[in-house]
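Researcher: Following up on the earlier apo prediction. This time include the ligand. It's magnesium ion, with the SMILES given after the sequence.
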Amino acid sequence: MKKMAFIDMEGVLVPEIWKYISKYFNIPELSVTTREVANYQELMNYRIDILEKNNIKLEQITDIIHNLKPIEGAKEFLEDLHLNKKFEIKIISDCFYEFLNPFFPKIGISSQNAYCHNLEMNENGLIEKVKYSRKKGKHEIIVKYQKENNSMKDSIAIGDAFNDFTMLHLVDHGFLFQPSEEVKRNAPIYFHTMQSYQEVIHYLDELRT
Ligand SMILES: [Mg+2]
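Model: Understood. Below is the ligand-bound prediction.
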């Protein structure tokens, strides 16, 4: 039987991309997160507005993202989950293919195994809007797999923030990876907080014994 691992990208496998963009272009407003603006779509409209005001094009952003590295050990962690622990890995991210594409080869995952959103550009190369690939949340992807008759038994999900909660609820083992204090405080008690990839692997090893 297939065991699935649904894994978030930013904050779990790769660094926070907006923080980096904010620092690189020296625009502090761009580091605002869903902690300050709870509604993600509102937050994205705000970010797109700021980029437009500063005339920062999508290509400039993807250029700098190419310099970013995944979190150390991310690729090996995924290999371990797949080869030794026999998980089928699916990435579920509220980020965009346009931003994440450079990372997929670096973590050894095909973009076909990732569920993200898309960005639309205008004729000047500025980001115009987000084309959202789901309406409600990350759980929609897990429900899709359930409907296709995959058992979710022994499946896991790993995320670091509020937008990961709905997917962590739907699996047998939901992991919060290095969450902020605020995220941890608001998380259900049955989510497992993990500080490292090794801790996740150790937890899974213990299950088998
Ligand atoms: Mg995240």
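Model: The radius of gyration is 17 Å.
Researcher: Noted. I'll compare it with the apo version next.
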